[in-house]
Amino acid sequence: MVFFTCNICGESVKKPAVEKHYQTRCRGKTKNVSCMDCLKDFYEEEYVAHTKCISEAQKYSNQSFVPKEPRNKNAQKQESWMDIIRAILDSTEYQLTPQLRNAFQRLQSVDNVPRKKAKFENFVGNCMRMPRNQATEVWDILEKELNKMKEAKQAELAAAKGAKQKTEAETEPVPEADVPPKKKTKLENGDAAQTETEAAAATTEETNDFDWAAQLMKLVAKQPDGVFLEKLKKKLAKKYTKHLSVTELSEKQSKKFDKRFDKQLKKCDGLQLDGDLVKQC
Q1: 200-244: pLDDT as tens digits
Q2: What sections of 13-131 are H helices per DSSP?
Q3: Pairing, β 32-35 against β 3-6
Q4: pTM for this prediction
Q5: What is the Cα–Cα distance from 266 to 6, expressed in whole angstroms?
Q6: Closest by alpha carbon to 42, among 137, 109, 87?
Q7: Distance separating alpha carbons of residues 180 and 258, to the nearest angstrom
Q8: For residue 243, how far is the Cα from the chain centroid?
Q9: Nearest residue to 89 (alpha-carbon basis) of 74, 72, 108
């Protein structure tokens, strides 16, 4: 809310009360007020356009002070609403009667004009003593100007969109033959390489079967007292990996190895499992 000081009597008054002040205490005098924040002088109806003023931070800071952008969206909406009121006063389209023009001028000096019809009518009726029929007439003009501004904005957006689409259509597309092939990512390349390795390993295993029984017997024969099951499994896994011509078994290959190891160990007649120890029979 903006506060003014009357330069005639020195009394401080709120902006909405300036009109009343010059109808009562300083009646018959020419309006002459100064803003209490920026100390600027206003004569006659000039004060009406002074809706916002500098903050205390701006007032008491040095010249290099940069004010922050206001984050209050309601304040921005209210400012747009006040722009509509100013546009109506400046327009010759509505041919305002003296009573209506006076009503809009009074609205222009208020900072918190409601933007909903019911609240607007209650506000101007209670605070500005405006008759109900006049309040409805003022609201209809406000609504008409608001719809007019909305239509103008939509037309502007549609024109900008059409211009953008036209520009895109005029731009020649790049021929497909000139478009370089998409490079595979490192992950995709790794997956492809892993798939190829697994396929090659499966082909090797099919064409040259791994002799499970012979390899098991050979490993256990090296240990007359027997070999622990996990150790035997690790040694056989190394031979199996070498047989497949890979550096490391994939998850799928490891599962397959574990399953076949248990099965082949049970089928081997020359070996027996004594707890965790594998021995020759």
Answers
A1: 545 444 445 778 788 878 887 887 778 788 888 888 888 888 888
A2: 18-21, 56-60, 73-90, 98-108, 117-127
A3: antiparallel
A4: 0.37
A5: 109
A6: 109
A7: 45
A8: 56
A9: 108
